[in-house]
Write a structure and sequence with these properties.
By secondary structure, the chain is mainly α. The chain contains four helices and no strands.
Length: 113
């Protein structure tokens, strides 16, 4: 596994677990944390090139970034209004699904060089 692939998978995995644990209960500024994934994603694509085995990791990273920006804009517009319990459950499910996709990507990179 290449350096930036590993960094991307580890950071996205940490974010996926944080989303699964916290659900929708997080401060407004925490919605911008997924932007941290853009640096290793860009470095990986530029320095190492895209690989089909990393497709699930790319989807998770881009999905988290888009979701974080949309949530930040929504919370900024509403003044940080609380989310419903159903939304928190959906956030937890998204975090777990993202973590599983990252594990699939890590396995693909390890076994299909």
């Amino acid at each position: 596994m290449r350096l930036f692939e590993a960094i991307l998978i580890v950071l996205a995995g940490q974010l996926a677990l944080a989303v699964a644990v916290m659900g929708g209960r997080r401060p407004k500024w925490a919605n911008l944390l997924p932007l941290v994934l853009l640096a290793p994603l860009a470095a990986h694509l530029v320095r190492e090139g895209a690989r089909w085995q990393m497709a699930p990791a790319y989807l998770v990273a881009v999905g988290f970034v888009l979701e974080g920006v949309i949530r930040y804009a929504h919370a900024f517009r509403r003044g940080g209004a609380a989310q419903s319990a159903g939304y928190r459950g959906a956030q937890s499910a998204m975090g777990i699904a993202g973590f599983l996709l990252l594990m699939l990507s890590a396995a693909a990179v390890a076994f299909f060089r």
